[in-house]
Amino acid sequence: MAIFYRGAGINTYWYRNDPIEQGFVARDSEMTLTTTRQMLHIARSTVNSPFVSFTRSYAVAWHYAMVSSGRVPTAEDPAYVHEIEIQEPLPPGLHLLDPVKEVSQILPSPTNPGPPYQHDGLPDFLLGVVDPGRMGNFLIQYAMQPPVSEGTPRSPNLTIELETLVRALRDAEILAHGNIPATCVKNRFEVYPELLLSE
């Protein structure tokens, strides 16, 4: 048995459509499952996909519940964190995917002559990938070149593969392909900032 979580900000889709009653269903469950679609779902926040994202981290789900609606939850108007329990064997038609494992299978060899998936910036470049809203300045610093280089100044290399890997790790993200039945949704916790301070 494994426990997962999903945050639902005020008036977001899973706030208005209670998964305790209907389960979790992807927006376009008939769409073809590909690694590219997984990367678009994670790195570009494409919601029209065959996946439902959830996390192994209650804290990550809580964070998304707090920030996903643009409104601050309160005791009178809380956001939600759903607790999902999934056991082996999985319900029929449900597949769970670890995006880090899925994307790592398509990464090129270190000797591949094409562009690598790794960045070529300073170590703190990854802070910008983790939190572009607050640390985006790390994404636009120039990529350093050897002293003899006459290359055009540019930002470091950021591939969709790297962005997907970093964000999947940041969010302890797992993707569900197929329906997560309502019987797997065990709890809906009301959450708001003041509750955290009072614990």
Structural overview:
The chain is of the alpha+beta class. 30% of the residues lie in helices and 18% in strands. The strands form 2 sheets. The chain has a 3-stranded antiparallel sheet. It has a 3-stranded antiparallel sheet with strand order 2-5-4. Helix 3 (35-43) packs across helix 8 (160-170).
Task: Say what oligomer this is.
Answer: single chain
Q: What's the N-to-C terminus distance?
A: 28 Å
Strand-residue proportion: 15-25%
Tell me the Rg in angstroms: 19 Å
Biggest sheet character: 3 strands, antiparallel
- What would the principal axes of the Cα set say about the shape? globular
How many β-strands, per DSSP? 6
Q: Ranges with pLDDT <50 over ≥5 residues? A: none
Count of helical regions: 9
Report the mean per-residue pLDDT as an integer. 93
**How helix-rich are the residues, as a percent range?**
25-40%
Decide which structural class fits the backbone.
Answer: alpha+beta
The arrangement of helices and strands along the chain is EHHHEHEEHHHHEEH
Which strand order do you get reading across the main beta sheet?
1-3-6
Offer a quick outline of the entry:
The chain has 199 residues and is an alpha+beta fold.
Structural descriptors:
single chain; 199 residues
